Amino acid sequence: MMKKILVVAESIDVEDSSGTKGRVALIKNLYKAGFELQVYHYTRKIIELENIPCHAIKENRRSLLFFLSRLERYLRYWFNLKVYKQIEQAFGFSFTLFNDRNSIVRALNKITDFDPDMVLTLSKGGSYRPHHALLKLPGWHSRWIAYIHDPYPFACYPRPYDWVEPGYLKKRKFFLKLGEKASHIAYPSKLLAELMESYYAPMRGKRLIIPHQTFESDTTAINLPAYFKNNAFSLVHAGTLLGPRNPRSLIKAFQKFIKENPEAADHSQLIFIGRKSKYSKEFKEVMKVFPQFYSTEAYIPFSKVLAIQNNAAVNIILEAKSSISPFLPGKFSHCIQAGKPILLLGPYYSESKRLLGNDYPWWSEIDDEDKIFAMIEELYSNWKSNNSQCDYHSLGKYLSEIYLSDQISNL
């Protein structure tokens, strides 16, 4: 008999963040693997997942915490009084988070028709609201799988992302308690698990690796945007460029490729898909003088982004210049599913590189312009000879409901 899993998710709206896309793919693959699910989510709007019972948790708008959270917001917007740092320094978290936690706890306490074998908490960003809520429900601690998608708090991030935020010690205390109370700690990445266990001793011995999932997605009927040349040598980076993800060497290498291979100019392009970033101004200048380059800033539906990735000649994963990248990017599974070469630009010690293998041919540090140029030339040569497909069979299995089912069923 398959296990019953209660999923408590911060959001199941795939359009709100890359993190939510990964969480929804995980939920869908749990269902596909045969588990009986109930999903309670704090998206605060009605969203349905096919064949999966979903319950939207309502925000408690009558509490003192709600009033205090709105007062803080109004002081910030109306009078430019930024008191949130003092609030977090004193309490560790915002009044909004405390009210959201209590709203989730109240909803979960009302469940009477579903007795789960496991409770899986899924979050996004740095809030971990469902995890805060489960700490208030000790009756479920022995069945609790706490999914940790990123290092926490920010002081635990590797450079250059690390910084000490207000209320750091209370945030750390929260994760120490989480590590103590949860039955299992799930991570999308082995390197992330090792990093978190180095900071939090209570998490050791509770490790469960659940990578970002592949999923069925038919994008053949989706119209591709006018700026995307189908059947061209298209290099695509999908996702917002956080500051340390510096694309300058990649752009220079591609410009050099076009200059030294002029026959490729008419059917080659480098595309960045994502919201506005610190590089947007530079991108606009490059677009004026280099027609093979294009960058978006407007919102693009997830399904259309997937269609572009599936039709690209090469998909790009760009990570920060660092000694290590313990993150498994959410788009890693999309790139694997597309079956095209991945141009991986990041540290030597990287979860993406670990999964692709030490002998993976298209990896470089992000600032090695000469190596990136040489790899683009090789990828172009392969594309011209119709030799661009990649065999990701073993990785596809690792990122699918097959491996997921094994991990959960063996608990």
From TrEMBL:
It comes from the Bacteria. This is UDP-glycosyltransferase. SUPFAM superfamilies: UDP-Glycosyltransferase/glycogen phosphorylase (SSF53756).
